[in-house]
Amino acid sequence: MNKSISMWRSLQAAGSRLFSTRPAETSLGAARRGACATAFAVWLAFTPLFAQRMNVPLNLQNSRRAHDLIRAGNLYLSLQDALALAIENNLDIELQRFAFPVGDAEVLRSQGGGTLRGLNFTLAEVPTGVGGPLSPVETGAAVAGQAATGVTVAASATELGVLGAPQDNLSIQGTVPQSNGTTVPSLDPAVIGLLNFTHQSTPETDLQSYGTNALVTNTTTANGGLSSGFSTGGTASLTFNNAHTNWNATTSGFNPFNGSSLGLTVTQPLLRGFGNALNRRFIRIAGNERKITSLLFQQQLINTVYGVVRLYTDYVALYEDEKVKQETLTLAQKLLADTQAQVEIGTLAVIELTRANAQVASAQLDLINARGLREEEEAIVKNVLTRRNDDPEIRDARLIPTDTLSVPEQEELRPIQDLMTDALNNRPDLAQANLQVENSRIGLAGSRSATLPDVDLVGVVQNNGLAGTTSPTLPNGYAGYSGGYGTALEELFARNYPTYGAGLQITLPIHNRVAEADLARDEIQVKQQQVRMAQLQNEARLEVEDAVIAMRRARASYQAAVQARRLQQESLEAEQAKFEIGTSTSFFVIQYQSLLAQAKSTEIAAQSSYVKARAALQRATGSILDQNRISVENAIKGKM
């Protein structure tokens, strides 16, 4: 408030300096200049006030949280920390925050009678990363003796196709916009003014007309008015015209003289363009658009939260898989040392040493691949969680996940029909699509009105006044006109010389094919949107069903993977015991080491699949924000 008052006073002072009173000026002239200064200040004051309503600060710096999580060069990150960083820093969310002032601008534009510019319905998805279903992660160790073949090492993340962030266009309008329909009159009042001086010299051929062969006229015109449209479709214009004329005509009855008029003209459509509901349709649509901006932000928040959960889960899986590969390499190196010792004492053939060396090389290659994929995933995670990825402290810090992957012993799932009902009721993408259909139905009123004839009721009321210096040759009856500008105003407001009238103005198109075609197409588009809405609902149900199936499959896979890992662990231990007493060879030990490594990686992958399937179900039902304790209001403010 104080800022607004200060701005107002500074603008008024600027206007006063611009229209400052001159030393020799009369009090009347000073008053006129003071009025001009005030009007100038009003105009300057309200223009920036409207602009400030849409002004949103731009912040491209990382939040302090990212640095607070770094200790000894490591960025220790839990899932909740990752979600908090995404809400504070993710640029997709930040970009969507600008949708709110865009919605406010749409409302402001509609309140002035303007057509709407529309919203951007394109939302971003978090990049896939390298740990998704199509990841080239090797879940098993390289086959012994084939360390140099059968393994593909990607040169860059671009080759993996994991950096691109797909986008979802939630618009159901299609590529062809709905027609605007009838024009809404400008609902913002406008002050119109004219100040003009004209000097005109005209040669005359008839001396009897003006008593001179060269008519010289000096005219000063000062007109003002106020015009505005109304939600009924009508327009009104109030005009106040003044003219002071001084000429050299000797035959004129008045010289100089002042003429004034005050008139009101009202035009009201009776068919096309008539009605409050019709002319306020864009205001209603803009109100829905403002609701849509909130739903779009909520959907972008869901997209990002789900993507962060998926990326974090994949990173944990890659982090654990790297440990598995390191353990496998350690076992291979131990086997190599044991084989070396037995070859030296002659209990094993030299070929066993070659096989053990091949296993070490294969394990090293597996570890290099696992570490590279984990580093690529780490770079993607950091990019999603920061506004700037050129911060050296964050870029150089190694990401250490503090949460582990876990599958609960039991998880009760509600009936799938209830989950589908939750999805239809809670998902913001479906809610905003429904508002789009409603907006198109509202817009049909304009298309229908455009097919009607133009029938306008026009009314005019005007008063006139005249005064001046009368010629001595005029009869005494004209003495009432004698005087200055004040006399002209007296006659004006006394309504001595009124003018008024009313009438109908009709335009009846013989065949309005343009408007009829627009209406037909708009009606078809509304039906197409309803079909698209049904498709979105079917897709939502399918997403729920698919996520439930994926959770069941992931749980079963995890249980089987746990059992397989235990059995492979027991088999390896038994084979190692036989190897130590010389009743087995390195070939069988290598085989069981590879099978155990594959079983461990499969168990990690099954855990990861379950966690991601559970997150997919939460996203499909629209409950992922509640499950992760995320408030939309706080997310709008950029705080967890």
Overview features:
3 domains, 3-stranded mixed sheet, 6-stranded antiparallel sheet, 55% helix, alpha+beta, Outer membrane efflux proteins (OEP), 640 residues
Under CATH, the topology of the largest domain can be stated as Outer membrane efflux proteins (OEP)
Count of DSSP H/I helices: 19
Segments where pLDDT lies below 50 for 5+ residues? 14-35, 136-161
Please identify the top-level CATH class of the largest domain: Mainly Alpha
Which term fits the overall shape? elongated
Global structural class? alpha+beta
Total domains: 3
The count of DSSP E runs of length 2 or more, i.e. the number of strands, is: 11
Span of the ends, CA to CA: 30 Å
The topology string of helices and strands comes to HHHEEHHHEHEEHEEEHHHHEHHEHEHHHH
Looking at this structure, what is the CATH superfamily of the largest domain? Outer membrane efflux proteins (OEP)
CATH architectural designation of the largest domain? Up-down Bundle
Describe it for me?
With 640 residues, the protein is an alpha+beta fold. It folds into three domains: 2-53; 64-180 and 281-440 and 522-637, Outer membrane efflux proteins (OEP) (Up-down Bundle), CATH 1.20.1600.10; 190-229 and 234-272 and 454-508. 55% of the residues lie in helices and 16% in strands. The chain contains 19 helices and eleven strands. It has helices spanning 2-18, 27-53, 64-68, 79-89, 91-97, 99-111, 157-160, 207-210, 276-279, 281-345, 350-385, 392-396, 416-426, 428-450, 485-493, 513-580, 586-621, 624-627, 632-637, and strands at residues 70-71, 74-77, 122-124, 167-169, 190-203, 214-229, 235-247, 254-269, 398-401, 454-470, 498-507. The strands form three sheets. Strands 5-6-7-8-10-11 form a six-stranded antiparallel sheet. The chain has a three-stranded mixed sheet with strand order 1-2-9. Strand 1 (70-71) and strand 2 (74-77) form a beta hairpin. Helix 5 packs antiparallel against helix 10. The chain is elongated and about 150 Å long. Mean pLDDT is 84; it is low at 14-35 and 136-161.
